[in-house]
Amino acid sequence: MTGKHVEDQLVAFLPNLRRFAVSLCRSRDHADDLVQAACERALASALTFQEGTRFDAWMFRILRNLWIDDGRRRRTAGPQEDIDAHHELAARGSGEAEAETRLTLKSVAAAIDDLSEEQREVLLLVCVEELAYKEAAEVLDVPIGTVMSRLARARRNLAEATGITATPERSAVAKGTG
Amino acid sequence: MMSGEQFSDDMLMRFADGELADEEMAAIEQAMETDDDLVARVALFIETRAQAKASLAPLLAEPVPEKLVAAVEGMIAASRAERETPSSVVPFAAPKPAARASARHWTLPLAASIAAVLGGLAGYWVAGDGGSGPAGLAVAGIVNPSVGDALRNVPAGGEVALAGGGRFRAIASFRDEAENFCREFELDSAGSTTVVAVACDAAGEWRVSFAVSAPGDAGGYAPASSTEALDAYLTAIEAGEPLSSDAEAEALEGLRKAR
């Protein structure tokens, strides 16, 4: 086993890694530092990567652990940084997208931004990065049941905040006669 | 239309996320054909997933800052270079992942300090009797037979005075992952420096693979900080347990005979 696997995949994976980082810290500058630190850590421990397992899950885990360590240090160092760059998840300059669509999507991004960190990260891993529950559980170091309960709560909050009701079109009559 | 109630929300979420077994997926699909409430409950999960993905897609499309890409590419290049030219600092087989995860984190900053120390160490041996021979102790090209002899003769726990000043103390013997015979030892210079080092037998030569110099008091013995660095190093190379005195004596005898 060599570190080649990691070296070969890292650059192509940067956009995803950065997206995850931005949604964790909600600050692009912070996220870039975090991504760089995660890459450094990944290369240094490239030999721990098992071929045949998901590279993305492995990288997310490294990055998240760094973020948590970082948080511990921040807490012990006392309040010093304002990372509450609110609604950072909303895309910058989303171009020619239809105004209405953009408006809707922005509000979803804002709602995701407003989720607790626990709920946000699980939503991100499963719904956005498409990890299986089991993989997300490994990244987050929690049981699958915890992944599921956080994920369900995250979705309910998201639906509530954005007005996603997903009620199928149907009439009272149809319902009544079933 | 109550049939959908047999399915919990958890199950429907797993359905939306493709986490159910085929039969369960099929059962829900079938129930959805005739159950609007069930459709609505499933739709909530499908919809939130789709919306979350769509709303964060632009973030994925954002160009990664050039500075970040350059930094990562630089690290990758360095990592490749290190892999392709085996380092003399860690010349052993790759440790198993578990040990690596913690040890490796350590050894990176450590490597730099070792390199610096090796420079100082070379000076130490130059200041010794400066003799050279094909089977001496090679550190960055510097050879001192008296240390090599001590490594071949002094059992763990033993101590000898070196020709040219200073003392040699054998701490332990072990085998690394490649089964090379290695010795951990300390050298006190005539002044006040203690060097903590590991040397391994490489085809009749002693190769020093680790060395940290620490200011010691007159009585020798390295302070804790240098032994912490040593521990990290030993973990990184997956050093075996220290050999028993019998096993060590046997190995040392073998070395002497081989000469």
UniProtKB/TrEMBL annotation, chain A:
Residues in RNA polymerase sigma-70 region domain copies: 12-75
User: Keywords of this protein's UniProt record, alphabetized?
Assistant: Sigma factor, Transcription, Transcription regulation
Q: Which residues form the RNA polymerase sigma factor 70 region 4 type domain?
A: 107-158
The answer to whether UniProt assigns keyword Amino-acid biosynthesis to this entry is no
Gene3D superfamilies named in the record: 1.10.1740.10, Winged helix-like DNA-binding domain superfamily/Winged helix DNA-binding domain
**Domain of life, per the record?**
Bacteria
InterPro entries documented for this protein:
RNA_pol_sigma-70-like, RNA_pol_sigma-70_dom, RNA_pol_sigma70_r2, RNA_pol_sigma70_r4_t2, RNA_pol_sigma_r2, RNA_pol_sigma_r3/r4-like, WH-like_DNA-bd_sf
Q: Which family does it belong to?
A: Belongs to the sigma-70 factor family. ECF subfamily.
| PANTHER family, alphabetized | RNA POLYMERASE ECF-TYPE SIGMA FACTO, RNA POLYMERASE SIGMA FACTOR RFAY-RELATED
Could you identify this protein by its name?
A: RNA polymerase sigma factor
